[in-house]
Specification:
Shape: globular
Largest sheet: 5 strands, antiparallel
Helix content: 25-40%
Strand order of the largest sheet: 7-11-10-9-8
Number of strands: 11
Radius of gyration: 17 Å
Strand content: 35-45%
Oligomer: single chain
Order of helices and strands: EEHHEEEEEHHHEEEE
Number of helices: 5
Length: 204
Amino acid sequence: MPLFYQHNINHEAKLGVWSIEEDEEFFLQKVQLQKEIRHPHKRLQHLAGRYLLEMLHPGFPLHLIEIAESNKPHLPGTTFHFSISHCGNFAAAIVSENKVVGIDVELVTPKIELIKNKFLSGKEIKLLSTENFELLTILWSCKEAVYKWYGQGGVDFKSHIVIKNISVNRNSGIVECRFMKNEMKELIIHFNIFENLCLAWVVN
């Protein structure tokens, strides 16, 4: 089973990353498609994400998942919170019994350089001791995780999600940020780096 990574954050929250190597039939033994998805690889990603939710929390009420107007999947009327992310052949999911969560997984590629000024301010770029694809991907992934945590759309990555500090310790670290849409909120985003993959998550 290609469970790439699993982390129990605390008694109420856990996350995992799945390396997708199976075909649809493998996932369909456990979970069902909840919407029509024509692209074969996107179907696989969708199924792998739901499969991972069930693995992280056996009995997870997949059938109750609804899609909000902002396109965020959620569980109305329950205390469960979850978030799913897909990238390439990876699916990531996080589940919490009582706190709002967001997760993002990204492949590290040079293409991030082309969009850095769309999601980072000049002040944020100055926080980087060295500007490289990996660090830029970390910040992009952290802002994506916050975007999914918020879940209501309409977020400007440069003005609403402001990076205050980044701390890297080998292959992991934290990003301190201030979320400033509707109300101000201080958030801590955790991240891990696996060779050419970046994983970021927030629980608050």
